[in-house]
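Researcher: Batch entry, complex prediction.
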Amino acid sequence: MAIDRDSVLNAAVGVLSRQPNAAMDEIARAAGVSRATLHRLFPGRDALVREVGALALRRFAQALDDARIDEGDAVAAVRRLVDAVIPLSQLCAFLTGESKLYEDTGINEAWDRLDARVRALFLRGQQEGAFRIELPAAWLSEAFLDLVAGVGWAVQDGRLAPRDSAHALAELFLGGATRRPAP
Amino acid sequence: MAIDRDSVLNAAVGVLSRQPNAAMDEIARAAGVSRATLHRLFPGRDALVREVGALALRRFAQALDDARIDEGDAVAAVRRLVDAVIPLSQLCAFLTGESKLYEDTGINEAWDRLDARVRALFLRGQQEGAFRIELPAAWLSEAFLDLVAGVGWAVQDGRLAPRDSAHALAELFLGGATRRPAP
DNA sequence: CCCATCTGAGACACAACTGTCTCATCAGTG
DNA sequence: CACTGATGAGACAGTTGTGTCTCAGATGGG
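Model: Structure tokens for the complex:
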């Protein structure tokens, strides 16, 4: 039976989100395969990283679709987005680390497209009067994604319980992003 | 005249916060010195990174002192902390990236001590009734530092205006961390 | 049982980075 | 002007990771 590519990719995410410059040797060991097999599955390290990045971005885009962020109340949309994105927080941590490391045009463009979709959600929320207009939508998007990555790191290192993470992220972020009911 | 070590360190921060695994060659070029001089100033790459890390941690600790986070109203203390830490956001971005790359015991311990001080501030705020108790103080600290690093990256890449950064950080974070005046 | 296929272990050359060296050049000083 | 000290450029070996290869062993189907 051919070794499961997805399991290898998942193991690679686990290693690379902690150590973005991990060697193929470590990735192979973490995936439970030999270095030779890892090279048989992926043409090289760059290809592996790109594939992990593409996987992460695909799942992220799927999460945005699943959360239906263009529909209904913006605050509710953000809550759906949080729930959809929390399982991907480790992937998000990988992507934030990776985007600092490499200059892969494809990954960066896809990341920008995702960021634009999130930004549009916050812009819509501002236009609806739900989100504070004195905070730039770009900053809200940036901060949201930073916090998702932060959740990924915190959960990975055991500093945050996974079952608390969605609530912690949603409450902290929405508390800061939404307009106060009464000054 | 001996080349200014500090200017080299600052240049190193600029490069390493973007590319944590940048080569000595790139760091030297960014600092405007030759690779030979860089090696004359610092015994090696590890020493350089450690020194940059130590500098960042010292400045961070100094910022905590300057902000007098143990005194007075917790919310006001956080605002002072934001103002003191914003100029160091790039250093914070470096530290976050670096801690994922290396396992330098000294840096990690010092980072944990800083994190504990910040955590104590939020814990105090919760005990005073200013901060929401349903969010773990550890998460507040984690999120705060993630956002500071995020500010560093966003400013560095031109996605956030430096003069807006303190306000953006303080308002978003405090909005999420403080208890709502009335439900 | 035999065979096809896949996997793991190891060897190998190649590339990149590091750390050290030498030497020429340049600036400041007496 | 001569001299001292620091710097830049380049060469060099050593180390580490990569990519490819071969070969032996395991696994599963016919």
